[in-house]
Amino acid sequence: MMVICPICNDELEGEGENDLSLNLQEHFASRHGFTGLCDLRGGTEGTACQRSESGSLADLPYDERRIREGHHPEEAVHPGEDVMQSVRCPLCGTAVFGHAFDDLSYSLAKHLNYAHHVKVSVLGKG
C-alpha cells in the first residue's frame, strides 16, 4: 500500500493499514516536526486514537493476510477487484478510506485540512 504525504508529496509505503499508518506517523514526526501525535501502536484506553474500522485483515502483513483469506474465501479479494484501502490519521487515529493510492492520499489530505487545519499540497484533485 502507498500514500502520498499531503504536506510534501513524499511517497510512503506499508504492508497494510497499520504499517502504512505507523510509517506516515514517523514521517510526520521526523520530516515535519509534528509532536503530540496519536499513539497508533495501541495506546491506553482514553486516548484520542480510534480503533481502525477497515476490518481485521487490514492490519496483518500481506503474506499472512493472503493465507487467512485462503481459509476464509468469503473474505478473499478477487483479481481486478477495486478494494477499499485505509490509513489512520497520524494526528487523531481516525481511519481514512480510498480506492487507490491517489484517492487515499486525497482523502487523507482532505481530512487533515478540514479536521486539523493542516496546510496540504495535494488537495486539488484533478
Uncertain stretches:
none
What's the structural domain tally? 1
* Secondary structure tally, helices: 3
The arrangement of helices and strands along the chain is EEHHEEH
Instruction: Give the tally of β-strands.
Output: 4
Residue-averaged pLDDT: 77
Plain-language structure description:
The chain is α+β, with helices and mostly antiparallel strands. It is globular, with a radius of gyration of 15 Å. The model has no long low-confidence stretch (mean pLDDT 77). 33% of the residues lie in helices and 11% in strands. The chain contains 3 helices and 4 strands, in the order E-E-H-H-E-E-H. The strands form 2 sheets. Strands 1-2 form a two-stranded antiparallel sheet. The chain has one domain (2-116).
SSE order and pairing:
Blueprint: E1 2-4, E2 11-13, H1 17-32, H2 62-71, E3 85-88, E4 95-98, H3 101-116
Antiparallel strand pairs: 1-2, 3-4
In short:
It is built from three helices and four strands. The protein has helices at residues 17-32, 62-71, 101-116, and strands at residues 2-4, 11-13, 85-88, 95-98. The two termini are 21 Å apart.
Give a quick set of tags describing it:
alpha+beta, two-stranded antiparallel sheet
